[in-house]
Fold:
Amino acid sequence: MKQPKKIGILTAGGDCPGLNAAIRGVGKTAILKYGMEVVGISSGFLGLLEKDYMPLEENDLSGILTLGGTILGTSREKPFKKTHQLANKKPELIKEHYMEAGFDCVVCIGGNGTMRTASLLAKEGLNIIGLPKTIDNDVWGTDQTFGFDSALNIATDAIDRLHSTANSHKRIMVIEVMGHHAGWLALYAGMAGGGDVILIPEIPYDIKIVNKYLKKRVNSGKPYSIVVVAEGIKRPKGVSAATYIAEKIEDGVGVETRKTILGYIQRGGSPSPTDRLLASSYGAYAVDLIAREEYGNMVMKKGDEISAVPLSDVGGKLRLVPDKHPLLEKARGLGVCLGDTL
Ligand code: F6P
Structure:
């Protein structure tokens, strides 16, 4: 009789809500639908280097759907990084440990960095499946990463709360959300929260335009304004986006301005129902791919359909907000300032 497949699961890169839902989705489908053996790999690719594994039975996967973080732990270990002392040996070591453990496939749950490593490991001949997660929503090849919707809820709630305090004090409130390269979270939360100014890394802004716009609001009797900025917008080195923009606005507009940096709150806590569904579905689909031996793919979503894209197409790319994105046009139409034109 054919041996049941043995699969490893790891979570790598920055954490986000929904990781445990994805681990559960992979693990339960593998055990219950296909009778596979499931092994958790600790702390991302570090666990493969250090042979730090934990067997996962069905009971270990119960009660984790709603939990934030990851029961497997994570790290930013990048085994193919050239600057590292053991750079050339790490991929070999991972290959060796993969074979030694008898894995038929490893499911790598992560963002862009993880998908890059996953595609390189697949190129080295390992059976790999990628699952896209990140609050930044910037993984190329999928419309949606899990983690994004939860972070969007948190950031929108924060903007809602800033409205009332801004109104009471007649202040300008600057709120910084995560997103180094991509402005998805700032754009979506900014629109959902009714931000007046939204600055994203993809659209170069002119602070004079921003200040002119805010002055116009003051002169037309609007008592307060909300400015949503992505952490990755252009600014001097060593100063946060919110700090820099808030100072420039207070100087230029002459209205008391406060800043809020939302930080890691965006990555913590229980996943939203949308993320629970997405992570569970991605996890289940990953195992269907393994059962069909369609390795070297990342699970993705286009429209309503979950499908797969080759990891070799994904690795090393970023999904940025395109300049013709419909929500940008809607924002402009609603009178939101994106920092480039009045
Ligand atoms: O990649 C997700 C992300 O949340 C980015 O938006 C953020 O800049 C980064 O991770 C920070 O990660 P850490 O401080 O954990 O390395």
The first strand starts at residue 6 and ends at 11. The domain at 6-147+271-314 is CATH 3.40.50.450 (Rossmann fold). The radius of gyration is 22 Å.
